[in-house]
Write a structure and sequence with these properties.
Radius of gyration: 21 Å
Strand order of the largest sheet: 2-1-7-4-5
Largest sheet: 5 strands, mixed
Number of strands: 16
Structural class: alpha+beta
Distance between the termini: 46 Å
Order of helices and strands: EEEHHEEEEHEEHHEEHEHEHEHEEH
């Protein structure tokens, strides 16, 4: 008899070994459909992992950070597969989960153009609808050393990946395609909606802090995105200025190390460095002025990278 202890402390008994997915299905069909991984005795494993002895088990879904990261990690491989199918001579170098999504880095004899993103994204969706495991989809094409870039787990089925989009193409010789991925279409639509503030980092060292600031702004009720592309900060600022983003939060090493941000308006006004709490208070006052309603400001928690 195998005893499975769930997060709420309840105990379930099974008369033979079973997978993480089967544990989820025994709890409820809805949980089984939502499951993207499991945590067995504290270790993150994929849904096919077989439990053969007593264990503490937690079913991971896209509604929690680990589950969403698994979706985005799986999209890295899906993007790599789509690029390889469309451009057979491409050389894949790197891929990672970053910000609200993921990227792949590659070279091709003829540099890709922004218009190519639509074709690549369409191929990704075609691959996603095959309803195979990510490893099965990848087995149809050789990805060379790229297969070792990201450790799993990955989603149990490619059809789980139904809310992603390719957003940017950067570079000329060695290029990167950046995409975003969310748990459902509603969250993707919210990401696409006009933003009140965009967080931009100066270098890759500040990516974690920039995303943490973005998430804090979202928890405070603001429409916020982060632009963590490997791109010149001046280009990022000009890009979002042209998109008429009302406010930009610029983050460099000084901001990250000090636990604050530099606030700029979309019109070029520089308000200097301030805490994220002060930024939220400023934005809240502006919203209140427009709506005539006052809103409570949630506590702000920021993670700083070292």
């Amino acid at each position: 008899m195998i005893h499975i202890t769930l997060p709420d402390g309840s105990l379930r008994e099974y008369d033979q070994p079973l997978s993480v997915f089967e544990v989820a299905a025994s709890i409820g069909i809805g949980l089984a459909k939502a499951a993207v991984a499991g945590r067995v005795n504290g270790t993150l494993v994929d849904c096919a992992f077989v439990i053969s002895q007593d264990a503490r088990v937690n079913i991971v879904t896209p509604q929690e950070p680990e589950g969403l990261e698994i979706l985005r990690r799986s999209c890295v491989r899906l993007l790599a597969m789509a690029i390889r199918q469309l451009y057979t001579e491409v050389k894949l170098y790197a891929g990672a989960v970053v910000g609200d999504g993921f990227y792949c880095e590659f070279t091709h004899e003829q540099s890709l153009q922004p218009d190519d993103l639509k074709l690549i994204e369409a191929r990704m969706y075609a691959l996603a609808t095959t309803n195979h495991s990510i490893n099965h989809v990848l087995s149809q094409s050789r990805l060379g050393n790229f297969e070792d870039v990201l450790d799993g787990p990955y989603v149990p089925s490619s059809r789980v990946l139904q809310a992603f989009a390719l957003a940017h193409l950067c570079g000329t010789s060695r290029q990167r395609i950046y995409g975003v991925c969310w748990a459902n279409q509603q969250e993707l639509d919210e990401w696409r909606a006009p933003q009140q503030v965009v967080v931009v980092n100066i270098g890759e060292r500040q990516i974690g802090y920039a995303q943490s600031v973005t998430e804090a702004l979202r928890r405070a009720g603001f429409r916020a995105n982060s632009d963590v592309r490997k791109k010149n900060i001046g280009n990022k600022i000009r890009h979002h200025t042209l998109l008429a983003v009302p406010y930009l939060l610029v983050i460099g090493d000084k901001e990250m190390d000090g636990g604050f941000v530099s606030l700029r308006s979309g019109k070029g006004e520089d308000f200097g460095r301030m805490s994220v709490e002060a930024v939220c208070e400023r934005l809240r006052i502006e919203v209140d002025t427009v709506t005539g309603k006052a809103a409570a400001l949630p506590a702000i928690e920021i993670r700083r990278e070292v």
